[in-house]
Amino acid sequence: MRFFIFCYSTLINYLPDILTYPDMTALWFEQQREIEQDNLTVNEFLDGIEKFIEEQLNQAENIKIEAKGEPCECGKGVLVLRRSEKGSFFACSAYPACKITLSALNNAPITE
Ligand SMILES: [Zn+2]
């Protein structure tokens, strides 16, 4: 049970809001009472949660995180600040499809 609680509190930081809704917690609490009353087995309970989390993870894979920044010449991405051993530079967020890079000066791209 301790392991499960750890997983749940860790997942809360990464999964969609639906997992943090009080309804969800209430449902799981209710199911734990069902277990106490022998109306539900621990495995059935955990299978249900596992299936639910799997569905949530599948949905999370389809979420695209949009980068903010100056639009790139390619029209597909934006210029985002990257750091390398040689210093900072700007690269297109559409990399590897677009390999445009620009030098950076004071965290701003140098355009000529
Ligand atoms: Zn680009």
Automatic annotation (TrEMBL):
Domain spans labelled DNA topoisomerase type IA zn finger: 73-106
InterPro entries: Topo_IA_cen_sub1, Topo_IA_core_domain, Topo_IA_Znf
GO molecular function, one term: DNA binding
Pfam family, one: Zn_ribbon_Top1
Keywords: DNA-binding
Protein name: Topoisomerase DNA-binding C4 zinc finger domain-containing protein
Lineage: Bacteria, Pseudomonadati, Pseudomonadota, Gammaproteobacteria, Pasteurellales
